[in-house]
Amino acid sequence: MHIVDGALSNEILAIGAVVGALGVAKGLRDMDYEQMPVTALLASVFFVASYIHLPVGVSSIHLILNGLIGLALGWAAFPALLVALLLQAVFFGFGGFLVLGVNLINIAIPAVLVGLLLRHALAITTQKRQLAMLGALAGGGAVTLTAFMVAGTLALNGDAFLPAAKLAFLSSLPLVVIEAAVTAAAVALIGQVKPELFAVAARTSS
Amino acid sequence: MNRLLLTALLLITSSFVGAHNVVGGVYTIGDTIEGEAGFSNGDMAPAGIKVIVTDMQGASLGQTETDAEGVFRFKPSRYVTHHFTLDLGAGHTLALTLAAEELPAALAPTQAPAATAVTTAAAKSATALNSQIEAAVARQVKPLRRELRELKEAAGLRDIVGGIGYILGLCGIAALLRERKMRKETA
């Protein structure tokens, strides 16, 4: 899902940087102290999860877990993902410094959307099956959105949108399934063992 | 149960470890430039990818295509630095550079005066031998280059632990700043 340096035009890079910076500012303002350890934890999870790659066609996919991150962090997903993406660029050579903003918004905006939409439903249930379903919806939905945003970015850059979107969507189909399953398992577990993890996030941005 | 499921999933997926950056290299073999392009997980570029060759100023020097193994060949005709650009689609682009000094010696502009005087049979066979040696060495070195490149791309446990360390460190800095602010407020 990372777009590499040198693939996008300057205008798109600038837009990505500005929108990304706004998101990070909003995230930092919303984040309260209690949320910080969770933010750091999920940034680490994202950082490591992206290292696990599944080759699909000419592209390759990896766990993004932005659904889970959005549910737990809300707007704080922006700073968390910024740090993780920056470290991935430094250590793994994924993405790059110039496209950091674009990659950030492609991953963080779906996370925030999913978080805002689903976290209230999440806060009122402790039933395992409902939790798992919400998790699956969040995980699958966030990744699907990200895939379309990546396709849209490439389209803005001149790739024909339909083939690019088709490729992005098809190659992320297996990821959507895996992501939904992993997020469902994680949300069900967290919702039962440590429900306050989601509650903190819901309180700070309601 | 769920924890088990999660672990199992992670185990399954982690066997596909690999990165997805585009990598490649160009080098001179005999009187042609040979290059290869692929992904850092070891897959080579698909056949028929257009390779655009330009000089330093961006003026076109020609173009070529990758074959089934992701290898492309280009016969240089000018003694300038060559830039190779490939677009593998879906945001994967690759730019490679071959400096003028690495071009075949025959193209170098300074050779002309002396060479015409002594074109003996001995000199001819010497150049033939030279190019044979060059080709043989190139063949031997090729897998080494690839291995080196893969090694350079590979991120290891050290990188992962290092990255997590940075994140925890940032968290610590934030805690420190807050602590200081609170102390100021109470004072």
UniProtKB/TrEMBL annotation, chain A:
Pfam families from the UniProt entry: CbiM
Cellular localisation: Cell membrane
TM regions (residue ranges): 12-29, 35-56, 68-91, 97-119, 131-155, 167-190
Membrane topology listed for this record: Multi-pass membrane protein
Entry GO CC: plasma membrane
Top-level taxon of the source organism: Bacteria
GO biological process, one term: transition metal ion transport
Alphabetic keyword roster: Cell membrane, Membrane, Transmembrane, Transmembrane helix, Transport
NCBIfam families: PRK06265.1-4, PRK06265.1-5
Protein name from the UniProt record: Cobalt transporter CbiM
Organism: Neptunomonas marina
Gene expressing this chain: cbiM
TrEMBL record, chain B:
Region forming the signal peptide: 1-19
Keyword annotations: Membrane, Signal, Transmembrane, Transmembrane helix
Transmembrane segments: 160-177
Name used for this protein in its record: Cobalt ABC transporter permease
Domain of life according to the entry: Bacteria
